[in-house]
């Protein structure tokens, strides 16, 4: 609150400005370098060391992520939260550079609230999906410098749309892809996609028919498989008893599954 | 002409009179504390008057819709950027009012060639206990009246109305009837009674005394039949960081005593 508020200016038109634009006007959001120029001398390094996944099940959408954070070959943290609540019905899971990703989640969370408060209505699902897309596009200059790639998954639940559960994954440039059943991104995702494709086609049930326990079991198995071959994915830490973070979103809102619950499913169906 | 000081004072006095006339018809707003939060209540016919500003801050306003909108957006913008750069806990109503809104309203009011803000604002901020709740009113000239910033005995309610007489009677009524640690339905009833007291005190021929209880209830019934209720609460113990919630019409009407 250091500068005089522009909204009190006669020329102010608050309605046409979204929250990231407001932050930029106030110099609170770093502007990425021009992506075309930025590519020049920097080799493009794709680093998205982690595994996140999401799929629709009978109770809504399940979103899971491992807990490992790495810097090059070093494991720096084993309790990272990569599955973040954005609002009461929206979850963003992040693969990529944590600093950028967490900042992005923060901007997104405030964007939705800023919209609701200023426009006096909830932002539509399409608006929310697009808002994340725009953040990714604005960030692309950093991606081309090799320092800011983020590849998120976005899951939300809207009682007024059809289907009610909505699931999207993004590429680093901001293209959004809506999926019908499942999504996975990050370095361990090829293995996860294989498992989810297999389960959905030839498993006992389709993913969308799984109950909560069955869904948790599939998520744990998939992340453990990803960790088997990918050093950047933590999977399930059996000695340290660190489990992936799993959240579900349904009509009632977001539930963070308690660790005992995940541990007990792990014991019965995975270990 | 207004280079001369006494002309300036005269111009300010004229403008004060003009603004008071413009605001005089504004439907009152009552904000009362109850056991689990703070309730905002008004009755209206045409437009929304109670707003969410940030996680723990709500605003009620009377005045010109264009001016209210600019002040409301400014408050949201300031609170949101503060909450984003620091944290939601660092957003302070005190600073929002004293540092940002009040000076701007004061200078718009005193620059007699420009347009003043035709608006009166009532803010409340919910704390982690009722002792930390803050009620704060900003007038069109930037004057601030607050409850909760000094060591004085607290009253845990605040009102906003078109005329001074109406606001004073509402306060008098609430000093008598308001129970600090009541339940929400009790707060709803006392707030609507206070609204009625305020409404009855408006206009040229209104009485300067508190009306009888029966008269208040009768007036309330008549108004409720023809106008829409608007109410919102800031709830102290909510799972979510966002404490603001709009109350549905049914929830309100079912709490009203006949």
Structural description of this entry:
Chain A has 271 residues and is α+β, with helices and mostly antiparallel strands. In chain A, 35% of the residues lie in helices and 21% in strands. Chain A has helices at residues 19-25, 35-38, 98-119, 125-138, 140-144, 189-202, 212-229, 259-270, and strands at residues 52-57, 60-65, 69-71, 74-77, 83-87, 90-93, 153-157, 165-170, 176-179, 182-185, 245-250, 253-256. In chain A, the strands form 3 sheets. Chain A has a 5-stranded antiparallel β-sheet, with helices on one face. Mean pLDDT of chain A is 88; it is low at 1-6. Chain B has a single domain, classed as Aminohydrolase, N-terminal nucleophile (Ntn) domain (Glutamine Phosphoribosylpyrophosphate, subunit 1, domain 1), CATH 3.60.20.10. Chain B is 43% helix and 22% strand. Chain B has helices spanning 5-23, 65-85, 93-110, 164-177, 184-200, 213-226, 249-255, and strands spanning 29-34, 37-44, 50-54, 57-63, 119-125, 134-138, 144-147, 157-160, 228-235, 244-246. In chain B, the strands form 2 sheets. Chain B has a 5-stranded antiparallel β-sheet with strand order 8-1-2-9-10. In chain B, strands 3-4-5-6-7 form a 5-stranded antiparallel β-sheet, with helices on one face. In chain B, β6 (134-138) and β7 form a beta hairpin. In chain B, α4 packs antiparallel against α5 (184-200). The radius of gyration of chain B is 18 Å and the shape is globular. At the A-B interface, α1 and α3 of A face β3, α2 and α3 of B.
């Amino acid at each position: 609150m250091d500068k005089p508020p522009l909204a009190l200016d006669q020329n102010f038109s608050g309605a046409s400005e979204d929250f990231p634009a407001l932050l930029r006007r106030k110099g609170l959001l770093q502007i990425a370098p021009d992506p075309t120029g930025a590519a020049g001398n920097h080799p493009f390094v794709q680093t998205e060391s982690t595994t996140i996944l999401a799929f629709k099940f009978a109770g809504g959408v399940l979103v899971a992520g491992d807990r490992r954070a790495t810097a090059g070959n070093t494991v720096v943290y084993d309790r990272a939260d990569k599955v973040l609540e954005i609002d009461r019905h929206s979850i963003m899971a992040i693969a990529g550079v944590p600093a950028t990703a967490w900042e992005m989640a923060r901007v997104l969370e405030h964007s939705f609230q800023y919209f609701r408060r200023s426009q006096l209505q909830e932002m539509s699902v399409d608006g929310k999906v697009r808002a994340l897309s725009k953040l990714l596009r604005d960030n692309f200059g950093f991606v081309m410098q090799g320092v800011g790639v983020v590849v998120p998954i976005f899951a939300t639940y809207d009682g007024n749309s059809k289907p009610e559960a909505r699931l999207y994954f993004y590429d680093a440039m901001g293209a959004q892809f809506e999926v019908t059943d499942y999504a996975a991104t990050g370095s361990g995702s090829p293995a996860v996609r294989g498992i989810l494709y297999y389960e959905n086609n030839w498993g006992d049930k389709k993913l969308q028919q799984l109950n909560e326990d069955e869904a948790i079991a599939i998520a744990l198995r998939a992340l453990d498989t990803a960790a088997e071959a990918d050093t950047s994915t933590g999977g399930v830490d059996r000695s340290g008893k660190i489990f992936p973070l799993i959240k579900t979103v349904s009509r009632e809102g977001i539930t963070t599954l308690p660790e005992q619950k995940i541990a007990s499913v792990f014991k019965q169906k995975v270990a | 002409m207004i280079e001369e000081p006494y002309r300036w004072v005269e111009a300010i006095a004229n403008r004060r009179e003009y603004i008071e006339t413009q605001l005089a018809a504004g439907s009152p707003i009552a904000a009362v504390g109850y056991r689990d939060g703070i309730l905002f209540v008004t009755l209206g016919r045409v437009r929304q008057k109670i707003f969410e500003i940030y996680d723990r801050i709500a605003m009620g306003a009377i005045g010109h819709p264009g001016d209210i909108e600019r002040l409301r957006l400014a408050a949201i913008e300031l609170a949101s950027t503060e909450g984003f750069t620091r944290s939601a806990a660092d957003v302070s109503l005190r600073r929002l009012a004293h540092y940002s809104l009040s000076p701007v309203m004061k200078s718009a009011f005193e620059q007699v060639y420009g347009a003043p803000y035709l608006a009166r604002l009532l803010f409340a901020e919910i704390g982690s206990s009722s002792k930390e709740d803050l009620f704060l009113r900003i007038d069109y000239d930037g004057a601030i009246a607050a409850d909760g910033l000094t060591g004085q005995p607290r009253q845990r309610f605040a009102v906003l109305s078109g005329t001074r007489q109406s606001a004073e009677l509402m306060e008098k009524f609430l000093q008598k009837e308001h129970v600090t640690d009541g339940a929400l339905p009790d707060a709803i009833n006392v707030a609507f009674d206070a609204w009625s007291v305020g409404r009855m005190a408006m206009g040229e021929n209104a009485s300067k005394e508190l009306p009888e209880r029966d008269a208040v209830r009768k007036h309330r019934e008549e108004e409720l039949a023809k106008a829409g209720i608007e109410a919102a609460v800031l709830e102290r113990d909510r799972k979510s960081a966002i404490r603001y919630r709009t109350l549905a019409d049914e929830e309100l009407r079912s709490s009203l005593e006949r």
